[in-house]
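Training component of the fellowship. As part of building independent skills, the fellow (R.M.) carried out the full modelling exercise for a liganded target. The chosen ligand was magnesium ion. The inputs are recorded below so that the supervisory panel can assess the work.
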Amino acid sequence: KKMTSAELRSAFLEFFRQRGHAVEPSSSLVPGNDPTLLFTNAGMVQFKDVFLGRDQRDFDKATTSQRCVRAGGKHNDLENVGYTARHHTFFEMLGNFSFGDYFKKEAIQYGWEFLTQVLDIPPEKLWITVFDEDAEAESIWLNEMKVDSARLSRIGAKDNFWSMGDVGPCGPCSEIFYDHGEHIPGGPPGSPDEDGDRYIEVWNLVFMQYDRAADGTLTPLPKPSVDTGMGLERIAAVSQGVHSNYEIDLFQNLLAAAAKLANTSDLNNSSLRVIADHIRSCAFLITDGVMPSNEGRGYVLRRIIRRAIRHGYRLGIQDAFFYKLVAPLADEMGEAYPELKQAQAQVERVLKKEEERFAETLEQGMKILETCVAKLEGSVIPGDTVFQLYDTYGFPVDLTADFARENNLTVDHAGFETAMSAQRDRARSASSFTADYDQNINHDGQTEFTGYTHLHDQAHIVGIYKK
Ligand code: ATP
Ligand code: MG
Ligand code: MG
Ligand code: MG
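Fellow's submitted model of the complex:
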């Protein structure tokens, strides 16, 4: 059944509301009180303590459309953006949750009913996976939902035992995939060529049963619970009969706005897609109070902004452009997320300022990079160049690596780190004056990077960059 993204979001929430779930708002991208997590990466994050039995709500079933960012930490899809049909840095996760109320059977029933009856998806287009030790879930699918066993696979813990992070709630899961058709390369889940984009995972049903401790021990949760997550953009692609998330209504409008700024009409251009993806994560991160900076969450934001700006440069855009996409984004998403509309002017200001700052060094840095590549023997950009770009021109390493990948090259990460620690040693031996000479405090009260070296911060950045 064909629905717009907005219609799908409402249909989902309404389906679960009618089944006794409280409709709760999306929480912030910055998880409240959770130092173990960089960003909200799933719908269950705001309910983490409810699953653990440490927090109580006045409902035992809930449904949300949660804004999520996966650009750092355990779930990081930054490197996939522009290369797969299904990954974004920012996306919306539709979810239904049971806190000790229903468990596997109802979770599976609801999911199947929503997909095959509300959305009218033919069952033969769907593929099911279960955790290979979970005979109970397998039996519900085969014997109660009457799913064809030829379209069910049992998968190990890597994909079918879900965890929010290194610690916290987790459990076996069962996933639903959509087959986009044999014209697209890729095999079903569990097959050797499962990494293709033919079978796209749309919904993950997690049977929350354990709390994982730092040493890996699993303690059973007070009550078995359910946490599900379905990517709105992916299910919108299915509903709208398109393969790539970038072809759905919401992205087409954003892409058209970006294409106008780039003076092109090819909406399939991969740089345009990266820009349309990145404006969503950047705008929502700033809305949720993250500011570009040189460490932690702020540095992830700065890296995403600079990547987007570099893609603008690649498209030949001359002026500051990225901030101009906030308005079309607010048109698309401001109704579902009023906080975005409210913060619009502030988001534009922050992005424009960051863009102007990076513009001062971007072109020069790109010239150095292009000259280096033209003279390059072999296919590896040397660590010294990567370091020079990073240190003097404000090119995050992943930005240089992104450029390298476009040109079928790689960067010398080990060489970069050697150059970095050499710099750190030089600083240490001259430590009497390197304390914090280039840290400025701006009028927002934020610690700011001024383009050169704050050596203690750099050590931290390398720590983030290393996965
Ligand atoms: P994939 O295997 O495709 O990377 P995942 O297994 O990492 O997805 P989950 O952690 O199970 O994803 O998240 C639940 C759902 O959220 C997925 O089934 C998918 O629909 C959606 N989703 C996950 N990551 C992304 C992303 N980067 N962009 C868009 N949607 C996503
Ligand atoms: Mg993933
Ligand atoms: Mg997966
Ligand atoms: Mg999954």
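The panel noted the following from the submitted structure. The CA atoms of residues 310 and 362 lie 8 Å apart. The radius of gyration is 23 Å.
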